[in-house]
Amino acid sequence: MIEYLNLTPLQPLTRHSHLARNAADQRFIVIQHPDYQAVLALYGGHLIHYSSQGSPLLWLSRSALLDGSRPIRGGVPLCWPWFGPSPERVGVGKPQHGFARTQIWTLDGISETAQSTLVHLCLGDNAASQALWPHAFALELTLEVGPELTLLLTTRNTGSTPFVYSGALHTYFQSQAPEAVQIQGLGNTYLDQLQQKRPTHEASFVLDKPVDRIYTEPASRIELDTGLARLQLLNHQADSVVVWNPWQAGAAAMADFDDQGWRTMICVESAITAPEGIQVAPDEEHSLGFTLRLVP
Ligand code: BG6
């Protein structure tokens, strides 16, 4: 997987990590530890690869663009400061899922212990962000990459008026096949995004058609069996979990979604989707996160 990205090392960062570039001159942090591996793009603060104990857990489209021209299809896109189409409070017609996934983040620090590698990335407001969303902010992404993976996205309001945000850690999981996917802990109630957000009840999750659902009453611990691995996804301050698979026709309509890829992916997203969002007062902060754990 890492080989296929064709990365050229630039400089060592810690004992098991280094900075690298690809042919399009995009920067990546590469972690290669005997027990875990990860690749993190500075474009979007986007984790594009994570494997634990030899099992690659994230899906990345074979036709994902890694040249900084559009959001990367796969891994863990950061949807922020809104989820989905831009809400009325922001103004309609702005980029879907916000702008954090299309900005270049800064590496703020990286360190390694015997158990894991800790990475801090940051993003502040700038002319491009202000044009889309007129607020001062400091966004921090903390990743603890080890046999378990923890991602924490912290939103700090550095301005003088409150703001509202929503978002998601839009994780694409690698699966064996649609019929192998089992998910528990979603709760039975979802808003069906394929039916104008119609509230819907379903006793258990079956992946046999396109799904785009906002589960509004999830447990804080989701159990996911991908057919390749059994995982626990522990969500932190998410108000919902979004489950998405575009299925064959949906995938074919996306240039960066390889045509067979829909069969081996499922998005299970730790999200803030409530219409009122999260209000953050000046000098206050709020974090959204998850921990991903392999079940032996
Ligand atoms: C999901 C949404 O979170 O992301 C879907 O629920 C959307 O509606 C999908 O299609 C992918 O979005 P994008 O902007 O990355 O193509």
Brief digest:
With 296 residues, this protein is mainly β. The protein contains 2 helices and 24 strands.
Structure description:
This protein is mainly beta. The protein is built from two helices and 24 strands. It has helices at 127-132, 247-252, and strands at residues 8-14, 17-21, 27-32, 36-41, 46-52, 55-56, 78-79, 106-112, 117-124, 137-145, 149-157, 163-165, 167-169, 172-174, 182-184, 189-192, 198-201, 211-215, 221-225, 230-236, 240-245, 265-272, 278-280, 285-294. Strands 7, 13, 14, 16, 17, 18, 21 and 22 form an eight-stranded antiparallel beta sheet that branches. Strands 8-9-10-11-24-20-19-15 form an eight-stranded antiparallel beta sheet, with no helix packed on it. Strands 1-2-3-4-5-6 form a six-stranded antiparallel beta sheet, with no helix packed on it. The radius of gyration is 18 Å and the shape is globular. The chain starts with 7 loop residues before the first strand and ends with a strand. The model has no long low-confidence stretch (mean pLDDT 97). The structure holds 6-O-phosphono-beta-D-glucopyranose. Residues 71, 84, 96-97, 170, 193, 212, 242, 244, 269 line the site of 6-O-phosphono-beta-D-glucopyranose.
